[in-house]
Amino acid sequence: MTALVVATTNQGKLREIRELLAGLPIEVRTLADYPAVTTPEETGSTFAENAREKALYYAAATGTMTVAEDSGLEVDAMGGAPGVQSARFGGEQSTYPEKFALIYDALERAGAATSSARFVCALAVADANEVLFEARGTVEGEIAPEPRGDGGFGYDPIFYYPPFRCTLAEAGDRKSTVSHRGAAFRQLRDWLERTLNVKG
Q: 82 with 104: CB under 8 angstroms?
């Protein structure tokens, strides 16, 4: 079994990633398995830069192949914000309902009832001091008129996905088939299958 550290403490993300990698001959480890490892500061200006920085940092700190991802919401009427600041939007301690309120306030100030938007996920795999693989996934949608649904996590309740006619928080199991994280991690799964020579 090949060990792979999934460098996130977000339980919602971990659950999705475990499902997307299920059945591969890998031992999925998390940062909880390395309590002495501290969290790096995210200094990248793009999702891809942050993913690379985190993957290299955690691979070096744990001595184990690591996948790290950076993801967030880009709202066109807000110039692409909150973008790489999605998790910290409104301050480190702000709740997602508070973040939603800030987005609706920004849209109102821009004179927009809604806006096109997308979720972006960039991931990187590193081992030692080398980036081995990178992928990017996106899903296009728009900001819902108000938060709806109690599934998913993060910004899912305000992200309306037109083909489903609902928010991703209302999409249930369908979410992983179209989500930005699903798209990126399916590319990772394909790469792992080739690298580990997994028979289909």
A: no
CATH of the domain at 58: 3.90.950.10
Among residues 22, 19, 3, 4, the alpha carbon closest in space to that of 181 is found at 19
76 counts as catalytic: no
Out of 33, 70, 127, 150, which one is annotated catalytic?
70
Domain range for 139 is 2-195
Whether residue 82 contacts residue 158, with contact meaning beta carbons closer than 8 Å, is answered with no
For residue 43, give every residue at least 6 positions away whose Cβ sits within 8 Å of its Cβ, in sequence order, or none.
49, 50, 53
Q: How many domains does the chain fold into?
A: 1
pLDDT in tens, 93-115: 999 999 999 999 999 999 998 99
- Single-letter code of the amino acid located at 136: R
Closest CA to 103 of 69, 137, 139, 142: 142
Q: What's the Rg (C-alpha) of the chain? A: 17
- Quick: pLDDT tens for 153-183: 899 999 999 999 999 999 998 998 999 999 9
CA 83, distance to chain mean position in Å, is 11
At 118-133, the pLDDT tens digits run: 999 999 999 989 999 9
Residues belonging to the chain: 200
